[in-house]
């Protein structure tokens, strides 16, 4: 069964590796292209752009982690709504810059959480010592 309104034509697009990203972005803006996998015999890890896909997956994981932490902290007002009307594709060099900043932010945030946990432990230890000192003082006053 063919549910398409127009007949399809199979074309082969051969572009230089450096221009492939920009070409796919421009073709994707028109939403008139369907890509066919000509390397179906390759496993996922043998694909050409597997590193870029992994990087994007790591960025997505990091964003999900930070979003969950913000939501758990009760700061839901600080998460802006997603603008889906702007479908511009970000150049890879901008994604690399974003990735570096995001991972640095995540590292700093994890360090902040570790410091907070350590401060809470120290506070509880000091509070416990204070309580012991007060009990000892009360014991010897009698």
UniProtKB/TrEMBL annotation:
Query: By its UniProt entry, which InterPro entries does this protein fall under?
Result: V-ATPase_116kDa_su
Main localization, broad class: membrane
Q: Where in the cell is it found?
A: Membrane
Q: Give an example GO biological process.
A: vacuolar acidification
Per UniProt, which keywords does this protein have?
A: Hydrogen ion transport, Ion transport, Membrane, Transmembrane, Transmembrane helix, Transport
* One GO cellular component term: plasma membrane
- What membrane topology does the annotation report for this chain? Multi-pass membrane protein
**GO MF entries:** ATPase binding; proton-transporting ATPase activity, rotational mechanism
The record's annotation in PANTHER family points to: V-TYPE PROTON ATPASE 116 KDA SUBUNIT A 4, VACUOLAR PROTON ATPASES
Q: Which family does it belong to?
A: Belongs to the V-ATPase 116 kDa subunit family.
Described by its record, this protein's role is as follows: Essential component of the vacuolar proton pump (V-ATPase), a multimeric enzyme that catalyzes the translocation of protons across the membranes. Required for assembly and activity of the V-ATPase.
Q: Report the protein name in the record.
A: V-type proton ATPase subunit a
Q: What is the native source organism of this protein?
A: Meloidogyne javanica (Root-knot nematode worm)
């Amino acid at each position: 069964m063919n549910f398409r309104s127009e007949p399809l034509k199979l074309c082969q697009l051969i572009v230089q590796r450096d221009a492939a990203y920009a070409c796919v972005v421009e073709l994707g803006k028109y939403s008139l292209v369907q890509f066919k996998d000509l390397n179906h015999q390759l496993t996922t890890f043998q694909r050409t752009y597997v590193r870029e896909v992994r990087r994007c997956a790591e960025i997505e994981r990091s964003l999900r982690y930070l979003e969950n932490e913000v939501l758990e902290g009760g700061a839901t007002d600080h998460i802006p709504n997603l603008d889906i009307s702007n479908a511009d594709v970000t150049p890879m060099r901008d994604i690399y810059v974003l990735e570096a900043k995001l991972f640095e932010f995540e590292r700093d945030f994890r360090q902040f959480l570790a410091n907070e946990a350590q401060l809470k432990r120290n506070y509880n230890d000091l509070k416990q010592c204070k309580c012991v000192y007060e009990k000892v003082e009360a014991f010897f006053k009698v």
